[in-house]
Amino acid sequence: MTQTALVSILCSDRTGLIAAVAGRLHDLGINLGDTTFAVLGGGAEFTSVCELPQGVSVQTVEQDLRSLPELEGGKVTVSPFVLPDVHGPSAQITHRIEIAGRDMPGLVARLAEAFNEFGANIVQLNSERIPGTGGARYVTRIAAWIPQAKTDACLATVANTAAQMNLTCTVASG
Predict the structure, then answer these.
(1) Considering only CA atoms, which of 63, 72, 59, 61 is closest in space to residue 25?
(2) Domain that holds residue 54
(3) Cβ of 46: how many Cβ atoms within 10 Å?
(4) How many domains does the chain divide into?
(5) Could you give the CA distance from residue 96 to residue 123 in angstroms, rounded to a whole number?
(6) How big, in percent rounded to 5, are the helix, strand and coil portions of the chain?
(7) Helix axis angle, 107-117 relative to 151-164, nearest 10°?
């Protein structure tokens, strides 16, 4: 019988990091499900819902990953995943939105409130500060599920929120 586990890694960003982690998990016979990776400042975050084969424990996976030189000094946690390992309909991406401009405190909070107002679900969110000659540029990318009946109003509210903050907003379907 298989066990579902959450693998969570926070470490310094390095070339070859994903190759090392994914390769080791594959060597253990682990099947990756929903997986995310992001560079966060000088660090990196890898998270995956994994299917462990019979006979491979969460402790074994955690110890094995900690032995990787690429993860030296990082935090590795492997724990049983007790939530459903398959997401529901509101985790399907219907729209991709990009908001860009100068850094604005409260931007993510205001955008999240706008989505929440229409019962939309933010499936993925990525924000980054990009240094430039005229100051930092802030780019927020959101992948969201928006109820079909509320799509136009939700997207208009998000665009208006961005415009009020002197930011650009671009939208693409799914």
Answers:
(1) 61
(2) 3-80
(3) 21
(4) 2
(5) 10
(6) 30, 40, 30
(7) 160
What's 52's domain CATH number? Answer: 3.30.70.260
Nearest in space to 42 (alpha carbons), one of 71, 69, 18, 13: 13
**Average pLDDT over the chain, rounded to an integer:** 92
* Separation in Å, CA 30 to CA 26, 27, 95, 142: 5, 7, 31, 29
pLDDT digits (tens, 9 = 90+) for 61-119: 999 999 999 999 999 999 999 987 777 788 899 999 999 998 878 888 999 999 999 99
**76 and 26 share a domain?**
yes
Whether residues 32 and 95 fall in one domain: no
Are 36 and 94 contained in the same domain?
no
- Assess whether 8 and 75 both reside in one domain: yes
Residues 168 and 93 in one domain: yes
| pTM for the full predicted model | 0.78
What are the tokens at 20?
Answer: 């090392």
Residues 129-160 as b/e (b if ≥16 CB within 10 A, e otherwise) read: eeeeeeeeebebebbbbbeeeebeebbebbbe
Encoded tokens for 4: 């579902």
